[in-house]
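Structure ticket #2291
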Amino acid sequence: MAATVLVVEDEKEIRELLRRYLERAGYAVATTASGAEAVRLLSERAVDLVLLDLGLPDVDGDEVLGEARERGGVPVVVLTARSTVEDRIRGLRLGADDYVTKPFSPTEVVLRVGAVLQRARGGAAGAVQVSSYGGGRLRVDEARHEVVLDGTGVELTPTEWGLLTALASVPGRVYSRYELVNRVRGYEFAGYERTIDSHVKNLRHKLGEAGPGVVVTVLGVGYRLGWARDP
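Resolution: structure written out below.
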């Protein structure tokens, strides 16, 4: 069954352009120009990914993004004219999985949608299958796309999942931000290195008190998994 993409964009020409390209790529597409309508659609139908313009006329796009995160962690690709690094970081901190600035190539948008959906379905690169770390405290099950910490499931966004599995593939190995971008994204994303820290912060937060010990900062280099893999 084709994945369903909800396009939330108030500019009709852009909305229709994205619809055509996504449908041509084999996706089922729903569109709306309204943030309030987007929230309603998210509550009424199954959506696999939201392509979201933050600059909506009725409801702030941040609110729609938050709603998608509450609806089972539906992946969100933000589409906006807000192009500064600070704006990117803000969107990613709110839970966006990718960030595309206007003007854009519709073909690139379709590729990014596909990459995010692949990660959401467990297709991120990494050697982890079913492994435990820290004396059994942390369990990563790639086949089921599950993370369990101290017996409790941890719900991660696709990007957070990709980060964790990338680090867990070789525990203790230090990964630079550039390496993590390419392992998580599957392609180079110019300017994304500076925003990887926001995803790390979100991941640590979800891991609670164990977060800083699981994902360790190596100053001037990048990050590593701080807990050893169990035999």
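Closing remark: The chain has nine helices and twelve strands.
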